[in-house]
């Protein structure tokens, strides 16, 4: 059983930055591809970004490419999401996930507003 605990998030002005963290316990973190998803009010949950187990490959939704960066530290069993140049439309609850397996973090609210 894998548990994912998220931290970070909050309220930021447009153009600002935030970093989300997702710490894993249980399982073998270094063997899992990880991802971040988000869900805005009234919308379906959508893929944001993913990273392979050894950090060799990363994937981004077009809407965040060039602004968001996913990374991981396998020694700390943690995956990160650095969000720069935030826009109002980035407002959502963000979830980390073990890709290909149904393990989700608890969700973190990110609000971009002036």
Return the structural class. mainly beta
Quick one: how many beta strands?
A: 11
Distance between the termini: 40 Å
Instruction: Give the topology string: H per helix, E per strand.
Output: EEEEEEEEEEE
Helix residue percentage: under 10%
Shape, per Cα inertia axes: globular
Give an overview in words:
- A hairpin with a 6-residue loop joins strand 5 and strand 6 (58-60).
- The relative contact order is 0.32.
- The chain contains no helices and eleven strands.
- Strands 2, 4, 5, 6, 9, 10 and 11 form a seven-stranded mixed sheet that branches. Strands 1-3-8-7 form a four-stranded antiparallel sheet, with no helix packed on it.
- The chain has strands at residues 3-8, 10-12, 18-25, 34-39, 46-51, 58-60, 68-73, 78-83, 92-98, 103-104, 108-112.
- It has 114 residues and is mostly beta strands.
